[in-house]
Amino acid sequence: MHDPGVREACRRGDLAAGAPHTPLRVGGGQLRIGTASWTDPTLTETGVFYPDGRSSAEERLRYYAERFSLVEVDSTYYAIPARRMAELWVERTPDDFRFNVKAHALMTGQPSEVSRLPRSLRDALPEALRGKKRLYGTDLPGELADEVWRLFRDALEPLSAAGKLGAVLVQYPRWFMPNRENSDSILEARERLAPLPVAIEVRNGRWLANQDRADRFIKWLARHDLSYVVVDQPQGLDSSVPPISALASPRLAVVRFHGRRKETWERPEVGVLERFRYLYEERELTEWVPRIADLAARAAETHVIMNNCYANYGTTNAAEFAQIFQRVTGVTRLE
Q1: Are strands 24-26 and 332-333 parallel, antiparallel or unpaired?
Q2: Of 67, 178, 188, 222, which residue is the least packed, with the fewest Cβ within 10 Å?
Q3: pTM greater than 0.90 (yes/no)
Q4: Measured between alpha carbons, how far is 332 from 236 in angstroms, rounded to an integer?
Q5: How many CB atoms are closer than 10 A to CB 332?
Q6: How many CB atoms lie under 10 A from the CB of residue 324?
Q7: DSSP at 179
Q8: Which residues have C-beta within 8 Å of that of residue 31, sequence separation ≥ 6?
């Protein structure tokens, strides 16, 4: 029914079924482990992750939240969520659950499909923009750009009020280079989203091209109360961000695993599923244990997100990492 990789992930997922699903206690902080999304079509296929009968949005989220204490919402990058959706997320998850929510494309200098914007925004577009398929935030009049941020923040208010918002993930594209203008863009995001917690991910390695530059960037983020997103991703490419496990904010550390498919990482014609279609081996997860343990010992919360979002690859690796981390470090669960 499924390809060999999915069958292998199923086998390994069964072996890791006893992995701790609640946060782990590391020093005085908490370590949470989860995946990027719980609704990808390849994940919801029969026999991949969800049992028969768990087919509604509510049933799937409740099932996922029984197994992990954290999830990343990536759909918000493509469409600004409705406030009611966040209210349902709150209702359908345990009190101690966390959501990291990805910033909308228009908030990070990337294009958005006009058809996916809220009706209130589409109706307010100038005539010259209504016929476009895609537009950038810089295309919008100032008051409409402000409205994008306002709608996004308003939608997240239920999560924030319930204590379930981990952070807003602000991920910048490969062409977002280190310069004054782009540094100001990061500070603008911080200001517009305040007081919500914000985590910054860059997709261009020039921000951390050498140790001195990396140190300065992390210290700069720290001064502005911004978390740095540590990444595991393909190395040896022009855009490769080194896997520097640095802590910028003692409030929150974030680590995202993107897979290591070097051959697909920078190819524009490759879809998201193929770019992130990578099942980590145990040794690759184990090598991250001491680095994440160090982060977790210094941060109030540490979030590990598996973004290798193809079928059950992410859910399997998330459960495996939780199991490996507890075995190697001997840390205990938070009950």
Answers
A1: antiparallel
A2: 188
A3: yes
A4: 37
A5: 12
A6: 19
A7: S
A8: 23, 24, 25, 292, 296, 301, 302, 304, 325, 331
Of the candidates 218, 225, 230, 231, the residue with the CA atom closest to the CA atom of residue 251? 225
Burial of 315 (0-12, 13-18, 19+ CB in 10 A): buried
Q: What's the DSSP call for residue 203? A: S
Contact between 226 and 200 under an 8 Å Cβ cutoff? The reply is: yes
Two tokens at 272?
A: 């998201």
CB 320 within 8 A of CB 285: yes
The DSSP bridge partners found for residue 31 are: 24, 302
Using an 8 Å Cβ cutoff, are 302 and 292 in contact?
Answer: yes
* For the chain, counts of helices (H) and of strands (E): 12, 12
Per-residue CA distances from 302 to 159, 169, 263 (Å)? 18, 14, 30
Tokens read off for 284:
């690759």
Angle at 154 between CA 150 and CA 160, to 5 degrees: 130
Cβ 178 vs Cβ 188: under 8 Å: no
Q: Is 129 helix (H, G, I), strand (E, B) or coil?
A: helix
Residues 6+ apart with CB under 8 A from 63: 50, 51, 54
By three-state DSSP, how is residue 249 classified? coil
DSSP one-letter code for 310: S
In contact, 116 and 87? CB cutoff 8 Å: no
Q: How far apart are CA 285 and CA 299, in angstroms?
A: 20
- Select from 195, 187, 241 the least CA-distant residue to 214: 241
pLDDT in tens, the chain (335 residues): 478 889 999 899 888 888 878 999 998 899 999 999 999 999 999 899 999 988 899 999 999 999 999 999 999 999 999 999 999 999 999 999 999 999 999 999 999 999 999 999 999 999 989 889 999 999 999 999 999 999 999 999 999 999 999 999 999 999 999 999 999 999 999 999 999 999 999 999 999 999 999 999 999 999 999 999 999 999 999 889 999 999 999 999 999 999 999 999 988 888 888 889 999 999 999 999 999 999 999 999 999 999 998 999 999 999 999 999 999 999 877 65
